[in-house]
Design brief:
about 20% strand, about 375 residues, three-stranded mixed sheet, six-stranded mixed sheet, alpha/beta
Length: about 375
């Protein structure tokens, strides 16, 4: 099960620098001019989770395989993108394919790095991007409403449902509000997701600050934090320049560098975890002599669907899952100790998997 987070922002805010650090590659060209990224770059990154190494050590696993998230570096948007300015709709289409948006905001002063608007104002930058996404959504809705008119007249239930949702979203957008503010019922969730509205996606504001402010932020990132809180959005403070430097170091050197900078952990670890939380994701584990592996599922996923993340046959032929809570597995020294202490549970098809569960699935081939 793949989860994609799109990295967006105005040109020269540090998006590609951040992406380079995220993926530990130089795949995304970082340069001081707009549109240096002319194709969306995609990179998978491991989700940091110290629990996985503990489980592997207890089980004597030969291999450790973390769960992963996909980040998509999308070229810098500019005012008028919804009407084709800059590289326009090509990149708005790339955003539609993501599950959430990491909106990088420039919160640093640097005379050597040109700002496309000639000033540093992260709130205004956020409003520019949000406006372009809302305009693109409005245009998309208006076109779709025209195209489904005949189906609605014919009594097509799906078309009627889509029309109702689009009209509700249109009302919000025309009032200058993003589609994600719409309250969507459980029975409408699938149809709502299929609309793929840009402003329906959850947002994580990434405050890119100068190196000296990496630990505590600055006045600009404080403004972003206030805005995010008002919107019910998430935010994280990071210095893309520092992360780029860390990306070139080995683990020991990176730890020393972080200590010198007064940082407890890399900003990228916070960013990845924040994205994981933003998407409502959690982790379960499979552990054995061959490998200890983490798997990504949405919170609330039932055991058969969790099994299906490994292989579709596991879900179709699901019988039951042998389940041990992470804390019990560690405290009791693994599977045997957990069994002896009566902490291994047999769970059926209605079991809602918990974060950190260590699972073994039984299924019919």
């Amino acid at each position: 099960m793949g989860f994609k987070m799109g990295i967006v922002g105005l040109p020269n805010v540090g998006k590609s620098t951040l992406f380079n650090a995220l993926t530990r590659t130089a795949a995304a060209q970082a340069a001081n001019f707009p549109f240096c990224t002319i194709e969306p770059n995609v990179g998978d990154v491991a989700v940091p989770d110290a629990r996985l190494e503990k489980l592997a050590a207890i089980a004597g696993s030969k291999q450790i395989i973390p769960t992963r998230m996909t980040f998509v570096d999308i070229a810098g948007l500019v005012k008028g993108a919804s009407k084709g300015e800059g590289l326009g709709n090509q990149f708005l289409a790339n955003i539609r394919e993501t599950d959430a948006i990491a909106h990088v905001l420039r919160c640093f002063e640097d005379g050597d790095v040109t700002h496309v608007e000639g000033r540093v104002d992260p709130i205004a930058d956020a409003e520019t991007i949000e406006t372009e996404l809302m305009l693109a959504d409005l245009e998309s809705i208006e076109k779709r409403l025209q195209n489904i008119t005949r189906k609605i007249r014919g009594g097509d239930k799906e078309a009627v449902q889509q029309e109702r949702l689009m009209q509700a979203a249109k009302t919000l957008l025309e009032d200058g509000k993003p589609a994600r503010l719409l309250e969507v019922s459980d029975e409408d969730q699938k149809a709502w997701r299929m609309l793929q509205l840009l402003t329906s996606k959850p947002i994580l504001y990434v405050c890119n600050v100068e190196e000296a402010s990496a630990a505590s932020g600055n006045s600009q990132s404080a403004r972003v934090a206030e805005m995010a809180a008002a919107q019910g959005a998430a935010h994280v403070v990071i210095s893309a320049r520092i992360e780029e430097e860390i990306a070139q170091l080995d683990a020991e050197e990176a730890a020393m560098f972080l200590e010198e900078m007064g940082l407890e952990e890399a900003g990228l670890d916070r960013l990845i975890r924040a994205g994981y939380e933003l998407l409502g994701l959690q982790t379960y584990f499979t552990v054995g002599p061959k490998e200890a592996r983490a798997w990504t599922i949405r919170k609330g996923t039932l055991a058969p669907q969790a099994a299906g993340v490994i292989h579709g046959d596991f879900e179709r032929g699901f019988i039951r899952s042998e389940t041990i809570a992470y804390d019990d597995y560690v405290r009791l020294g693994g599977e045997t100790g957990s069994k002896d202490a009566g902490k291994m549970r047999v769970e059926g098809k209605t079991y809602e998997v918990k974060d950190g569960d260590v699972l073994h699935f039984l299924f019919n081939a």
